[in-house]
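Please, structure for the following, as tokens.
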Amino acid sequence: MTTSPRKIIIDTDPGQDDAVAILLALASPEDVEVLAITAVAGNVPLHLTQKNARIVCELAGKPDTLVFSGCHEPIKRPLVTAEHVHGKTGLDGPVMEEPTMALQAQHAVDYIIDTLRAEPTGTVTLCVLGPLTNIATAFKRAPDVVEKVQEIVLMGGAYFEVGNITPTAEFNIYVDPEAAKIVFASGVPIVMMPLDVTHKALTTAPRIDAFRAVGTRPCDMVAEWTDFFERFDIEKYGSQGAPLHDPCVIAYLIKPELFAGRHINVEIETSSDLTLGMTVADWWGVTDRKPNAMFMGDVDADGFFALLTDRISRL
């Protein structure tokens, strides 16, 4: 029996690893139907994230993809960005041409609300690759859409791997912890790809060579992007390569069997200076708090990279 592709909205702040996730989604129409890409401020400011989203759509040969620009700052905090990882454009490494495809006029939050209201309940999955600002703003502005969401699959948080922007917080959650708190308390089914799993999906030399060997422009770009941001992670973690965080979200929708985790309670810290943005995961079930997220802890890294190379080589 064939199932129809899952309808998804990709909410993102491209970054190189976000770009790889978008390529994977656009290369997999039999599994996911990308209704739109909604940009948010995060890795770099909004004027760059919406531009980068369009650059990636054109690279994929999909210039008819709808791209919307969303929130330019977190709900109640100044924006923290990550140029130190992704470079000043967010897509540093190879020189990228300016996009020619249009940015949609509607605000991303309004698009998310309208789409969730228009589509049948439980048929749209939100794939969140950056801070949760757009999603939380939509939920606050239009509480009726919350129950319409099929699932939220997000890259964010950490528990055993603790933090990558502070000692206790992962970047996406840290940038807008208030937004994360709203989303995690919403009751929508959540699957989270924390650092615990993404740090097991490393861009080793043979894995990047496999992209280079394909010889297409999208695969060459993946290799060059990872060459660029890998330097930061190798120096920081002493690992063999850089974690490809965001593609885990799309890979999960295509091949969920690549991942394993636990359905647990995850609370977001918003009031402590020391642990702001921490995803407090009740991994051992020591509280009576109700489970609200599927917290992934393991990935078949070889299977993950095989999927990425296979799909992106189609573009």
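The first strand starts at residue 6 and ends at 12. The two ends are 26 Å apart (CA to CA).
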